[in-house]
Amino acid sequence: MTVSTARPAATREPAGADNRLVVGGVAVSWRDLPELSLPEPAAVLAHSARAALAAARHHAVHGTELLLGTPGRVDPVMRAELRAAGFIVTALGDHGTRPDEGVAADRDDPAAGGDPDGGGPAGGGSGSGGSRPAEPGRLWLLTSGSTGRPKRVGHTLDSLTTVRGAQPERTWLCPYAPGSYAWWQVVTLSLTQPGQHLVVVEPDELDEWPVLAAAHGVDAVSGTPTFWRRTLYRDAAALARVPLRQLTLGGEPVDQAILDQLRELFPAARISWIYASSEVGASIVVHDGRAGFPVDWLDRDVPGRPTLSVRGDELVITSPYHGMGLDGPVRTGDRVRVVDDRVLITGRLDSDEINVGGSKVSAGLVRDVLTAHPRLAWARVTGRRAPLLGRMVVAEVVPAPDAAEPPDEAALVRWCADRLPDHAVPRRIRVLTEIPVKETLKSDV
Amino acid sequence: MEELSRAQIRDLMAQVLRNQGRALPDDDAAQLREIGFRSLDFSELALRVEDETGEELNFDAPGLRRIATVGDVLDFLVELQRQ
């Protein structure tokens, strides 16, 4: 289905149009990406990184109402929901890069009965749109799903753009799934700021990204703590060869151990962690190399900046970068603990707290104790149903790759017992051979 | 999976205590209070039995009786596997 939304009067290339993009190992610029014809409002399921970037640029130029995702993240139920919400669900593959054939967008999933709003063949310009008028400039995100079933959050390119000051020239790695909040953060940076280049990693290249990054001069990388742990675990030497000047962590709780490991490898780089979500935007940015943020950042009222508060155990944020309908204080669902002069974000409220015989345990704090063990690369801590106590703390761990001998369960129990109250010590610790990861690059959800 | 024998459960119980830096006496009449076997340790032992057998233990089935000695723990878990 290809209903052209080209509106010549409105077309304007974004400021970063000449930035370098490396996709599939080939260097192009935003300007070189194929011109698409998209229906409106469009829910685009991008089958490749290149197609996703072309859709993002299309939005930046034309303001087409757009929800961008990958086929894997949008299941049939979600597709039906999107259609019911007036979207034209459109699959977009690499054939979009062949404008000569005029095929820019396909009808979605004919096996499922096709799109009732289906238009004519490519270039046919049937003029049919969604079942409602499009909202120019609107961008929709699907939340990562760590809060339950993915839901739509309305943004604009402007509300997604949180880096506005002039930045030093950088070549960023983009390891994220197209359409996620983290993906848009890197993409808007490159679209809106000259000198911010992108090297895109396809999911099947993810494990070898340091080789790709070194080959293409990547000097800035943003990833989840799980992404960084997996990279250190697989090949720390290859990572050390990437000339990184900026390392960014976000999307999951960031513990001191991972910050210290990265600092050891990159003593001169800036290492930052960011708290951001599709609901409240990028709200906390910390550059001092420590986990958590200073306690005196709480309840500060600075115009144009998010206000951070704690209610009970929950982080509450009032942000100027919020999604549509989310102005005012937003309960983040993330659990915080104040330890000395820092506010630590330990995990999701609904999964972080484990009640062991009436004593409350933060899974995140136990996890931090385990990941601080020099011979462990990764840990996940959960509650398990147990007699007498209701629940017990249990853990899964992955030994560090260079550990001559992985620590045994008893040694890890003792390590924890030296640092935690009795009821918080994980009693069953299972050793995994590989760090688990999801498409969102998170593992602890 | 087959259920564990009393001796196998005893081995697991010894392991629970060993992880705490303590030893399990040979005498089944040894008092749990004296060897420092607490509810956390009992719960851990139950999880170990579950992991070995691949079956969840149903603690709701029998009324909890007085468990004061090593032998009480072993008897209880042997019986619980059959519920």
Descriptors:
heterodimer; A: alpha/beta; 10 helices; disordered N terminus; B: about 80 residues; mainly alpha; Non-ribosomal Peptide Synthetase Peptidyl Carrier Protein, Chain A; about 0% strand; globular
Overview of the molecule:
The complex is a heterodimer of chains A (445) and B (83). Chain A contains ten helices and 24 strands. With 445 residues, chain A is of the alpha/beta class. The two termini of chain A are 36 Å apart. In chain A, strands 2-1-10-9-11-12-13-14 form an eight-stranded mixed beta sheet, with helices on both faces. Helix content of chain A is 21%, strand content 29%. Chain B has 83 residues and is mostly helical. Chain B has one domain: ACP-like (Non-ribosomal Peptide Synthetase Peptidyl Carrier Protein, Chain A, Orthogonal Bundle), CATH 1.10.1200.10. The chains are: A alpha/beta (445), B mainly alpha (83). At the A-B interface, strand 22 and helix 10 of A face helix 1 and helix 3 of B. Chain B: This is Acyl carrier protein. Chain B: Pfam families: PP-binding. Chain B: It comes from Micromonospora echinaurantiaca. Chain B: InterPro entries: ACP-like_sf, PP-bd_ACP.
The global form of chain B is globular
- Biggest β-sheet description of chain A: 8 strands, mixed
Proportion in helices of chain B: 40-55%
Number of H- or I-type helical stretches of chain B: 4
Give the overall average pLDDT of chain B. 87
Structural class of chain B: mainly alpha
Secondary-structure blueprint of this entry?
The complex is a heterodimer of chains A (445) and B (83).
Chain A: E1 20-23, E2 26-29, E3 42-46, H1 49-62, E4 66-69, H2 76-84, E5 88-92, E6 106-107, E7 138-142, E8 152-156, H3 157-160, E9 170-174, H4 181-192, E10 196-200, H5 209-215, E11 220-223, H6 225-240, E12 246-250, H7 256-265, E13 270-277, E14 281-286, E15 293-294, E16 307-311, E17 314-318, E18 330-339, E19 342-348, H8 349-352, E20 353-356, E21 359-362, H9 363-371, E22 376-386, E23 390-399, H10 409-417, E24 428-431
Parallel strand pairs in A: 1-10, 3-4, 3-5, 4-7, 9-10, 9-11, 11-12, 12-13, 23-24
Antiparallel strand pairs in A: 1-2, 5-6, 7-8, 13-14, 15-19, 16-17, 17-18, 18-19, 20-21, 22-23
Chain B: H1 6-19, H2 32-35, H3 39-53, H4 70-81
Helix pairs in contact in B: 1-3
